[in-house]
Write a structure and sequence with these properties.
The complex is a heterodimer. In chain A, 42% of the residues lie in helices and 21% in strands. By secondary structure, chain A is α+β, with helices and mostly antiparallel strands. In chain B, the strands form 2 sheets. Chain B has a 5-stranded antiparallel β-sheet with strand order 8-1-2-9-10. A 5-stranded antiparallel β-sheet of chain B has the order 3-4-5-6-7. The model of chain B has no long low-confidence stretch (mean pLDDT 92). The chains are: A alpha+beta, B alpha+beta. Chains A and B meet through α3, α5 and α7 of A and β3, α2 and α3 of B.
Chain lengths: 330, 226
């Protein structure tokens, strides 16, 4: 700010110039541009330009570049740069640099199951950076809105950002349009977000979510898996993602049957994560010492509900007890 | 060269204000009032799809009267402003006062600089924390005037008649009481309004992150018949 003070002694014009220069060097947010509201009222072009220069902060747009109900589009038009672009990682696009796996946090195993009342999402709590444990109680299962949720495996930073944007996208759509997106629409939206992360994924920052929700039109729970390209695949029984998904998937496959109730799927999900943690070093098992248990959430006609830690502790302890007696019996 | 006739600035402003007021008075009115658990907004609106009352953010609601397309543009701009601000900073940093100021700026700019003022009156309501201390009602007029209302406010035409009928509240009413008064104030002595002709929404404390909720017709009927 030294330059500002010097300028103040010179002339008001210079002060303004210095202010502008200071703003140019500060990155982040550019003032919102007013627009179509004034056109509708017959505003002249020069008037609009003048308003754009002033500090009016309401995001108004001209009809031809109105972002509609999309929050992502609104962000782009308002000058927020997209989080991690491939250029920000490597300027040389011909030889994309891979981010060393130990340099960022990784979230691991999540599972999802359909059952009689809806769907269940569960995820372990470990984040790793290379071969180190970087977080013991990270959350990978989130409510996306009232009737849907996401579970995410992969690079923790981009994953958390993707979830935050996805939540906002759904809420923003609902507020602007006056009604919520269909479940199919939400699943497609998430697919687009995964696809837009592809350049980062090519450089190691892979994010692979599971999307689960209660379809209020069809009156049933539905489940969607994705791959890095944004491909969207609906599953009828169960889905897994993350490094422990191989082992967790096997447990689900063996234990799953149609029309399970909430208690049975919760136990199965906990068992799947338990076995995954047993075989995969990046998946965290239950931690009774610190009181850390997997996150389990159900989505039914009543909405998204996260299970209490007490219930999870009880079910986890019962599982451990079963394993112990199995091991003891000859 | 043709010289335009001289018109006194006072006359220009008066003409514009009359024009805006006439446009606003053509539509139906609405009442917003504080009740024990939050803020209720009660509008006369036969349409169940073209809304006058909507959600802006977790604890902020918007209501408009006058020309639908004009206040709906303002509503969407408000939603965008709030969501962007919440994304750039944090959800707690989004507040009704700054939004009301933004609306006032835009409306003021248009009123003084454009050919046609906006024929709208809008309300930005926000509920505070648990004790009801931070409840705010900002009434913004077509010319950008902002009024910070205490307990209740009427928007639209015939505001004086309606607020006289609504009367001064002694203390903060509960929802059913407030609604009964608001509905009879809106309808007047000569007619009565059914729930289907009303659009009612509340910002209610203790209902989770998003405090905005619409009351459907059966719920309104049950509330006012008790």
């Amino acid at each position: 700010m030294a330059s500002l003070r010097v300028a103040a002694r010179c002339s008001p014009l210079l002060v303004r110039f210095a202010h502008r220069a200071a703003r140019a060097t500060a990155p982040q947010i550019k003032p919102f541009a007013p627009g179509n509201l004034l056109l509708i009222c017959g505003a002249s072009k020069s008037r609009l330009d003048e308003l754009e220069k002033s500090e009016v902060n309401l995001p108004l747009f001209r009809p031809h570049d109105d972002p509609g109900p999309s929050f992502a589009e609104l962000l782009r038009r308002s000058g927020f740069e997209n989080q991690i672009s491939p250029e920000s990682i490597s300027s040389d696009s011909t030889s994309p640099m891979k981010v060393p796996v130990s340099d960022f946090r990784h979230g691991t195993t999540c599972v999802a199951l359909r059952y009689s009342e809806g769907v269940l999402l569960a995820g372990d709590r470990r984040a790793t950076s290379g071969n180190l444990i970087s977080h013991r109680s990270i959350e990978k299962v989130f409510a996306a809105d009232r009737h849907s949720g996401v579970a995410i495996a992969g690079a923790a930073g981009p994953a958390a950002e993707m979830v935050r944007l996805f939540q906002l996208q759904l809420e923003h759509y609902e507020k602007v349009e006056g009604e919520a997106l269909s479940l199919e629409g939400k699943a497609n939206q998430l697919g687009q977000m995964v696809r837009s992360n592809l350049p980062a994924a090519m450089q190691g920052l892979v994010v692979v979510p599971i999307f689960a929700g209660y379809d209020v039109k069809l009156d049933e729970g539905r489940l969607f898996e994705y791959d890095v390209t944004g491909g969207r695949y609906e599953e009828t029984e169960h889905a897994t993602t993350g490094s422990g998904s191989f082992h967790a998937g096997t447990v689900l496959k063996l234990g799953y049957h149609a029309n399970m109730d909430a208690g049975a799927v919760t136990d199965l999900a906990i068992a799947a994560l338990f076995e995954a943690a047993d075989e995969d070093s990046a998946t965290g098992g239950p931690d009774p010492v610190r009181g850390i248990y997997p996150i389990v959430a159900t989505i039914t006609a009543e909405g998204y509900e996260r299970l209490e830690d007490d219930e999870l502790a009880e079910r986890t302890n019962a599982l451990i007890e079963r394993r112990r007696t199995q091991a003891d019996s000859p | 060269m043709n010289m335009p006739f001289y018109v006194a600035p006072e006359q220009v402003m008066k003409d514009r204000a009359d024009y805006a007021r006439k446009g606003i008075a053509r539509g139906r009115s609405l009442i917003a009032f504080r009740f024990v658990d939050g803020i209720a907004i009660c509008a006369e609106n036969k349409s169940s799809t073209l809304r006058k009352v909507s959600e802006i953010y977790d604890r902020i609601a918007f209501a408009g009267v006058g020309k639908y397309n004009e206040f709906d543009q303002l509503r969407i701009a408000g939603v965008r402003h709030a969501d962007l601000k919440g994304y750039a900073f944090s959800r707690g940093d989004v507040d009704a006062r700054s939004l009301a100021n933004q609306y006032a700026q835009i409306l003021g700019q248009i009123f003084t600089h454009e050919m046609k003022p906006m024929e709208v009156e809008i309300l930005v309501a926000e509920i505070g924390a648990d004790d009801g201390d931070g409840d705010q009602l900002f009434h913004i007029l077509y010319d950008g005037t902002v009024v910070d209302e205490e307990t209740s406010v009427v928007l639209g035409g015939e505001t004086e008649t309606i607020s006289d009928r609504f009367g001064e509240l002694d203390g903060v009413p509960d929802l059913a009481d407030g609604l009964r008064r608001a509905i009879s104030a809106l309808s007047g002595p000569d007619r009565s309004l059914t729930p289907a002709e009303l659009e009612i929404a509340v910002l209610q404390r203790g209902t989770g992150r998003r405090a905005f909720r619409r009351l459907d017709d059966p719920e309104v009927a049950r509330l006012i018949s008790d």
